[in-house]
Amino acid sequence: MIMKKGYFGDFGGQFIPELLMPPLLELEEAMETILPSEEFQTRFINMLKENVGRPSAITYCPNLSKDLGLDLWLKREDLNHSGAHKINNTLGQGLLAKMMGKDVLLAETGAGMHGVATTVAAAMLDMKALIYMGATDIVRQAPNVGRMKLMGAEIVSVESGTKTLKDAINGALRRWLSDQETTHYCFGTAAGPHPFPTLVREFQQIISREARQQFMDRNDGNLPDMVVACVGGGSNAIGMFHHFIPDASVRLVGVEAAGTGEPGCDNSAPLNIGSDGILHGMKTKLLQTDEGQILPSHSVAPGLDYPGVGPEHAHLHATGRADYVTINDSQAINAFKVLSRREGIIPALESSHAVAYAIENKDKLQGKSVFICLSGRGDKDLGILDQIL
Amino acid sequence: MIMKKGYFGDFGGQFIPELLMPPLLELEEAMETILPSEEFQTRFINMLKENVGRPSAITYCPNLSKDLGLDLWLKREDLNHSGAHKINNTLGQGLLAKMMGKDVLLAETGAGMHGVATTVAAAMLDMKALIYMGATDIVRQAPNVGRMKLMGAEIVSVESGTKTLKDAINGALRRWLSDQETTHYCFGTAAGPHPFPTLVREFQQIISREARQQFMDRNDGNLPDMVVACVGGGSNAIGMFHHFIPDASVRLVGVEAAGTGEPGCDNSAPLNIGSDGILHGMKTKLLQTDEGQILPSHSVAPGLDYPGVGPEHAHLHATGRADYVTINDSQAINAFKVLSRREGIIPALESSHAVAYAIENKDKLQGKSVFICLSGRGDKDLGILDQIL
Amino acid sequence: MNSMQIKIEEATKQGKVGLIPFLPAGFPNREQFWKELEELDNAGAAVIEIGMPFSDPVADGPVVEKASLKCLDDGIDLAWIFDGLRKRKGQFKAALLLMGYLNPVYQYGLDTFAADCEEAGVSGLIVADLPYEESGFVKDALAPHGVSLVPLVGLNTSKERMKMYADGASGFCYFVSVLGTTGQRESLPARIKEKLVEAGEVFDIPIALGFGIKHPDQLTQFAGLMDAAVFGSALILHIQSGKSSAEFMEPWK
Amino acid sequence: MNSMQIKIEEATKQGKVGLIPFLPAGFPNREQFWKELEELDNAGAAVIEIGMPFSDPVADGPVVEKASLKCLDDGIDLAWIFDGLRKRKGQFKAALLLMGYLNPVYQYGLDTFAADCEEAGVSGLIVADLPYEESGFVKDALAPHGVSLVPLVGLNTSKERMKMYADGASGFCYFVSVLGTTGQRESLPARIKEKLVEAGEVFDIPIALGFGIKHPDQLTQFAGLMDAAVFGSALILHIQSGKSSAEFMEPWK
Ligand SMILES: Cc1ncc(COP(=O)(O)O)c(C=O)c1O
Ligand SMILES: Cc1ncc(COP(=O)(O)O)c(C=O)c1O
């Protein structure tokens, strides 16, 4: 699928300052030498098992399945240590960085989940965590800030631009530029300049490697009719899709955030309503003005609140292999409540977008098996809900 | 070991009003008929796997082991769905109750973890959750109250007595008395009247069944030198001890909460400084006055804040098979911070007591392998820490 | 024959219901308590039931609990109760019954407790958290001192269990009329009747109906099925509202 | 030969450093901006670098970023820049260079952008987020219009990568003197010297030193190793403090 180095069809690339090319090239090299090494693989697989708690379970939802008239299955990334899929990636990158001789893990974070997961990886690997976070997000994600500080992270408040995730990425890229010798930039999603989209997918594909097998084991060897995941930057979705891509019978659905839902509202749905552009090192679909200025995004789910998307999704969208749909804030909040009440599982607001897809489209999905990636747990979102409800 | 029905040596029994005997006898009967049935066992094992995410991992702590000069291993009950060992018990009791034809799960809760776990079980099994919680605990454990409400629990604020866990138990017992026909009292720890200590141990013994095998698999068939768990009511500890009890070489250590730590301070260490007495349906060790009035307990860890202890621990204490020690609030808080920082694992304040034991006794434990039950995660405790620090 | 039974049967013989008022020891305060007892005695109580305060009264309703915890705060303990009773020994026409939870009695020492009962003129004990299965050692301690352990049964007690309690029981049988804790509740007369008939078949000692009884009218429907009535919450509320025990007893006479 | 190179070499011939002041388009406001350009031109700038505002200027330091975002808020866009330059075509002695990020240029359309540069008298373009690997299509679009894509290299650019950039480069080479973003930083003269020597060996176009330059004294140690100096943050701060561009240029003449 990769046509030009670092490209997925028309999307991807390495649109970053020359001064960041050396660390990116160093990383590409580590991907070719260290990543496939037995030492790395052994340690990584052991960490996934011992520290993350993998394999994560798959769960059949008896009550909601009955309510909706379909078979609802969840891949439980929320059960991972630190509460989301993010840790698959941070442990992978952390270990790689450690073996590259770096001692600092630098990361951006929006919802705080990637910041927490990076901090966990740093603590575990006896490294330092340096987390860039928008000033606005620091306020709305206070519990995750508390967790990061407790685990020893240094948190840098980003005061520029919209003071959210995209500005945190800008800040972190700048910092990486200065500190590249000692520091690995542990990018949080399957986006950004090559090799990050490939590297992050490599660490997240474990989701579908497990999920596909687990589903077949529980369903007499049959595959699900549909696989659904929310799409922020796209890491949990690409992880959940990857091993299903060759299964032509399996419909892949990525769910973007429609924001409040009125026409013209701020949203986080670049695949649905954005256009081609270049941001954060990649050519992809973006929310932007005609002049190429990046638009502020919005979603009630902070982890989806990003105006871009990973280039592989832009490609899967262009080729039609995956469908990308939208779910708005109130549909997601409804799903958050429904899954909590009916199955005793509090999903992250991000993951609630994927669950909402099944709820909102139940009429079309009668009798189908729908397999959703529950990318994270919703404990972090209770404060947001309190404010809304 | 059981000498008289429901006794562990001198401890245990069924000291409850006659009007509660019928539901207790009904439960005893269900333990003999339903519990061993293939249907129950199959469904329960499947729930532990699919819904809880069992087996829970064991984790070696490389940094802390080095810092302390010993081999530190953790059994990761914090990775269970809903964040603690409590769910092993609530799913077991919930399923049993469902198969007994009950539709309400009634529970007391202190820290809120058992309340959350009961609510999860009720939601999953399409039952109603009715949670009794002391008015004081409702305030100090607000996030867990939010989780329970979200998942549809009815919460009853208990305004009597010390307005904490022991009063919530009183309240729940009263409610059970009224509603025994439709309602199962899902007791939260391996204490209370027979058959609860045995029933809860039956559901929690999975901890050591897994842990013992996992440890041997990772240590060339060797057993740990020491197994450590915090003791509130005693359910995680008895679960963690159970399959190690026949291993004479393994020292079992239960850690009680010493409270603030000055002589005469309120504490939660009935095995260490309490005396024989009768409360909540059992004969056990209690914190009490010479007149037999129950003393208020204290621990920074709300889940340990209880003036009694499960009768099997009183027996293991009397026979000397297990040692029971104390850790005070500030030692526990230190362990909370140390494990967070050095290993990227935020332990529950309850579990921090067990971790603190290894830290405080490192000199005596040089070179030993110490296997700690990490009974729950500490996200719930960040608010408490904020207030203290 | 235990004096509680004697007193209740005296009432029965007069075609009356035996009256068993309950007050927590030290209620409404240390001095007034003894005056209330006197008044209740004079008003014709067959048995006076005195509550021993306990920090965790799991079988009590909110009215009794609140009143007892107040007494506990005031420092009431078993020593105070026995002391007061010893001083007034022989002054009560009614039989005296102590009611409470096991732990305070257990800490006091069962043998001492039984001896002190005898010495203070107490003829019976109710332990709310002591079902048949655990009661052996308590009965054994009380027996040498002629103190009866009063059995408590209720709507959900099977006939077989009633028989267990009936075996060797003395004094009277306390029949709890609601499934729930003390305090005034709606009752289910049909079911109560049915179970009272059963209790009558099983027990050869008087049967007292308790929990939620406020007025004699409530009992007419159970005429012939019961011998005595226990009232606690209603009496406490009555006294709390500033009225006298004597006045409360009036309609019962 | 690209006019930027010509202008810098004119300065070199006079034994001077070529001066390349940078200002974000529309700074400090729409009207004043053109006056500042005029002043800089009169004060002897070899090349004037004009920043094209972008919402996410990842390679800028805080001073430049803040100034540019302000201009963006004021509605400055490429159309406004080209419009203003077209109106003033031929009025500047200095060569004109646009600096920015790829996305706004990409949305404008590369071919249109290149044609408009030519028409407006712009001879070069710096794209901060366009490394060698991705630059082909941009160079292809610029070439027919005689617009140079100015290569940006720095302390961590290997000699091999410098060679890639040098191949076919015109105008000048922008050498970034710190590993970090624009703004005034401590520099490491030894390492800079070393890398400047390397750049001198590789590039046959002039070399301009940029990032964090404030005063000519900073450059004496690099004499002979560089041909021009870019100053941005220092100039912006100077203007923000109410002083004139001419005054800033004074010590450099
Ligand atoms: C729980 C959860 N799900 C999904 C996302 C979105 O990220 P991605 O699209 O990379 O999976 C986030 C980001 O923080 C998250 O925390
Ligand atoms: C995490 C955790 N550990 C331990 C305990 C103490 O309970 P037990 O002694 O029954 O394990 C609790 C009680 O809430 C808890 O939440």
Write a structural description.
The complex is a heterotetramer, with two copies of chain A (389 residues) and two copies of chain C (253 residues). With 389 residues, chain A is an alpha/beta fold. In chain A, 43% of the residues lie in helices and 19% in strands. Chain A folds into two domains: 24-48 and 86-200, 3-Layer(aba) Sandwich (Rossmann fold), CATH 3.40.50; 53-84 and 205-388, Rossmann fold (3-Layer(aba) Sandwich). Chain A has helices at 21-33, 38-52, 62-68, 86-100, 113-124, 135-140, 142-150, 165-179, 196-204, 206-218, 235-241, 270-273, 311-319, 329-343, 349-360, 382-388, and strands at residues 7-8, 11-15, 58-60, 71-76, 104-109, 128-134, 154-158, 183-185, 226-230, 251-257, 275-279, 281-286, 322-327, 369-374. In chain A, helix 4 packs across helix 5. By secondary structure, chain C is an alpha/beta fold. Helices cover 42% and strands 16% of the residues of chain C. Chain C has a nine-stranded parallel sheet. The chains are: A alpha/beta (389), C alpha/beta (253). The A-B interface holds A 49-53, 56-60, 62-63, 76, 78-82, 119-124, 126, 143, 146-147, 150-152, 337, 340-346, 379, 382, 385-386 and B 49-53, 56-60, 62-63, 76, 78-82, 119-124, 126, 143, 146-147, 150-152, 337, 340-346, 379, 382, 385-386. The complex binds pyridoxal-5'-phosphate (2 copies). The site of one pyridoxal-5'-phosphate has 21 residues of chain B, from helix 5, helix 11 and helix 15.
Spatial arrangement of strands, main beta sheet of chain C:
5-4-3-2-1-9-8-7-6
Strand content of chain A: 15-25%
Number of domains of chain C: 1
Q: Helix count of chain A, per DSSP?
A: 16
